[in-house]
Amino acid sequence: MEISLPPLAETCGLTGAAFAEGDRVASLLLLVEGGEVCRRDVLAEEEPKLVAEGRVLCRWTQHFKPRDSGPGAAQLLKMTTEALFLELAGEPGTDPAEENLPLLHFLALMLERKRIIRNLGPDAGDGRIVLRHVPSKADYRLPPVEMDEGFFLEVQEKLGVLTERLPAA
Length: 169
Description:
The protein is an alpha+beta fold. The chain has one domain. The strands form three sheets. It has a three-stranded antiparallel sheet with strand order 3-2-4. A three-stranded antiparallel sheet has the order 6-7-8, covered by helices on one side. The protein has a two-stranded antiparallel sheet with strand order 1-5. A hairpin with a 3-residue loop joins strand 2 and strand 3. The longest helix is centred in the C-terminal third of the chain and has 16 residues. The chain is globular and about 45 Å long.
């Protein structure tokens, strides 16, 4: 599965200030009026001031790196299932945003089938599910979620918004 998302902005969507290499940037995917999906990138410290103009589908933080404009740069704009999982999960050892947990667990299930993620089971200490990203050997610990009908309906809605309403690359 490939999802086309707008690339990381070069400037803060709130202040207009240019991002510098290494800045912590909060990215949000929003479902706005009319069913359109838009992305907002702001400095992480400015995020509390952001008034979302739609429903937040997911959010993550990352360190800003200027885009390479060389060959293959367009390919980097295609977000694969693996890349989406890694973006939403954040740095190993950090807690992902609560609203991203259902989507993260679902993406992990998809990646388990491809042997990109290995489920190591619950951590004996805190009960979190330990997921190993096989290529990098990084471990991600996610709080368990109830995989009931509501779980799958929520994930279906988010994936539907991301895959059906965005233009193909």
